[in-house]
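#structure-requests
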Amino acid sequence: MTVSPLDGIHVLDLSRHLAGPYCAMMLGDMGAEVIKVERPGIGDETRQWGPPFLGDESAYYLSCNRNKKSLTLNLKDEQGVAIARKLAAQSDIFIENFRIGGLDAMGLDYAALKEINPRLIYCSISGFGHTGPDHELPGYDFMIQGRGGFMSITGERDGTPLKVGVAIVDLASALFACNAILAALLARGRTGEGQHIDIALLDSQIALLANVGSNYLCSGEIPERWGNAVSSIVPYQAFQAKDDYLILAIGNDGQWERFCAAAGVSAWSADERFATNPQRVAHRAVLLPMLEELFRQKTVAEWLQHCADADVPAGPVNSLDKVFADPQTLARGMRVEMPHPTAETVQMAGTPLNLSGTPTQMRLPPPLLGEHTDEILTNLLGLNDETIADLRQNGVI
């Protein structure tokens, strides 16, 4: 029998939209039992964030909610809150992305739940975190990309600031949250105690500035937008070939020399203006037009073959139909198909988490709203059919 890394770990997920649900999905992929708590009749708003839709659900919702069970629960009702507290008492991990203070009055904040479950790992995801002058402000991915600096370094040099094409701040926050949760599980194994994890979208975005942020902190110089190029490496960008775009990613002088030989321009690598990366950066304005003219002479396929033969990093700029048909994508299990109750099957991106001894598993498709409510209340809380019917009648579930 296959054992997953988080077998036996129970997650109560009160988050919605993308960051929290994506984090919970990763935990579910690793074998955790995830209960997604949703509002009766409405559920996670992303269920309706479409088109496109598949069956009764939006593609957006489907992208981040597999390997979960859905429980509908009215947290504005005392009985609903009581059920949530009972489930939290049995959980290892609690994930929420309410506005700061939103769960306090319900007795679902960390301090309250710690009293009934000291081993609980409680993860909060918010725009600005639980401290600082702006901690009570709402925060969404797009606005954080602006405030946190991403948009100032994304886009063409003379163009408008641009956001990244996916909600990269939400996704990074999900990754950081998952990392912190796993670390807290390890710490709990030593101390027996849970803890509160405070993940902020702004913090995550600033952390993702990485070398660009470090460049500013070390030099004091405000970075520019470079489009598809980078400030410190040349050539490292997209070029127009005869039929489409391709990316050339020269990371060292040896690769440059091999590229020049393969392209029939060996004299370029011997030219003192272009022989080393610092020189190529200094003479960018001279070299790039030469490369642009060169690349227009052949197709993307021809250039990719030349680069592969010379062991030089290069690749196409693929549309998503090509991405999900790529033999490497398929070989790595990054396109998966799962059964679905209203659409027969649903295709999804797979998980990049590959563990040899305790592999991830695609156990459950994204759940329908409230699909597992009766099962959860019966199996975990021991409620009988009559009690569950009363709760449903009274709008608690």
